[in-house]
Write a structure and sequence with these properties.
Length: 439
């Protein structure tokens, strides 16, 4: 069985929903489909919640009414029989009356999560109704019946597998199994969400639970590209990536995939394929535990980076110095991206400067602190094992005209990273493309 996840733009209009249904039903084997909310819906639901937080039920009701009319128009375009149209209209009436019920009660973050979850409820119900109208044996499985996080807000894979297998057993013989992405229950039974990676995370967890043949992530981009197509001309999709390479690219700027969402697939050894709903015949990118040796695959960039340098003569041979430094960042819940050390100093980069002032005050207890803002991390990904003589030289040659604040190499076999001024980002990315991919 394959798991197929479709993002918000892939189901953003009635016609795109029809296209997705056509893609799904091409398979001769049963498929498990994970859907996001239709594009724009989650933003509207967040706006409704914002009005309710501000105790403005009239503003919330206005957004609810506008969203309801949008979905009622979708009904006319998506369905062809009066029976299915009326069935879906009744479902929509119930859904939007449910949303209106929140305007009369105390509103907290718990209610907000219930409201935001309705986007996926809307898209999956409309899709299953359309498939059934087309004569497809399809069943909608409520993600809230099997998708759960533990007390640390992390997915509970044992629970997910046990519940999902039981539900699948009770619904044998279907051509399409459909569920909501992103949403779940927490350890206390309350409606919650998976946060990082959203629907991609759902698809990966389901694929691991079912020991799927493949997990397909369908978006509006034909896979991961070898450079940022918004900045560099003539980028190309990367056909194959190791899970570690994909995670590096995702973390350092490739927005098509969240770095943590494919971990369940990685540990289960299930390949993940990134495909384009708008170009379904495109090869896309396959991510697996296989490594293509001797290749540099791609470049990514991460903006709005701050570099912090602590210089201290006391650091020389002093035990516990780095521990104290890291504890300061931990106390302010600020992750470190890159780190470089010398005998008298340490430089680090962060992408969250919300607590920069407090962090600097704490660090000044241990040495002289300097800060550089407006920086950018350039990450080059591929088979960068230290035994591949000359690979680093090729990368450095491409960067020879760019001022470099920090270099990180050796922490991974798949990555070499540079911290540079953000103003030099476009030049660096283009130089790397010319040197690594266009020769």
């Amino acid at each position: 069985m394959k798991v197929m996840k479709f993002g918000g733009t892939s189901v953003g209009t009635p016609q795109r929903m029809k296209d997705v249904a056509s893609l799904v039903t091409k398979s001769e084997e049963p498929v498990f489909v994970v859907l996001s909310a239709m594009s724009g819906t989650t933003n509207s639901l967040v706006e409704i919640s914002d009005y309710l937080y501000k105790k403005n039920p009239d503003g919330a009701n206005e957004v609810i009414n506008k969203l309801e009319q949008k979905y009622l128009r979708h009904v006319e375009e998506l369905f062809s029989t009066d029976e299915t149209k009326e069935q879906t209209r009744q479902f929509l009436r119930d859904e939007f009356n449910y949303l209106r019920s929140f305007t009369k009660e105390l509103f907290t973050s718990f209610e907000e999560k219930s409201i935001v979850a309705q986007g996926e409820m809307l898209s999956t119900n409309m899709m299953v109704n359309y498939m059934k109208e087309q004569g497809v044996n399809a069943v909608l499985l409520n993600a809230l019946d099997f998708m759960r996080t533990d007390k640390n807000a992390e997915p509970d894979p044992s629970y997910i597998k046990e519940k999902l297998l039981a539900i699948m057993h009770n619904n044998e013989g279907q051509q399409v199994y459909l569920t909501q992405g992103f949403i779940c229950r927490n350890a206390y039974g309350e409606i919650d969400n998976l946060q990082r990676g959203g629907s991609d995370y759902t698809a990966s967890l389901i694929g691991a639970a079912l020991n799927a043949e493949e997990i397909q992530i369908w978006t509006d981009i034909d896979g991961m590209h070898n450079n940022d197509p918004r900045v560099v001309d003539n980028t190309q999709p990367v056909h194959q990536l190791h899970f570690e390479e994909a995670a590096e690219l995702a973390y350092f700027g490739a927005k098509i995939l969240h770095p943590t969402c494919v971990q369940p697939a990685k540990y289960a050894g299930i390949p993940v394929r990134l495909l384009n709903t708008m170009q379904p015949d495109a090869e896309g990118t396959i991510i697996s535990n296989a490594t293509e040796y001797g290749k540099i695959k791609a470049v990514a960039a991460k903006d709005n980076i701050t570099a912090i340098k602590i210089k201290s003569s006391r650091m020389l041979l002093a035990t516990g110095f780095l521990r104290k430094v890291f504890e300061i960042f931990e106390s302010y819940q600020t992750p470190i991206d890159m780190i470089c050390t010398s005998e008298v100093g340490v430089s680090m980069s962060i992408d969250n400067s919300a607590h920069l002032g407090e962090i600097m005050d704490e660090l000044k207890k241990y040495g002289t602190v300097t800060v550089d803002t407006g920086m950018c991390i350039i990450c080059v990904v591929g088979d960068l094992d230290w035994s591949n003589v000359g690979f680093e030289t090729r990368v450095m040659d491409a960067m020879k005209d760019v001022p470099i604040r920090m270099i990180s190499y050796g922490g991974s076999n798949y990555n070499i990273s540079f911290l540079i001024p953000q103003d030099d980002k476009k030049r660096a990315l283009q130089n790397l493309s010319n040197m690594l991919f266009n020769n």
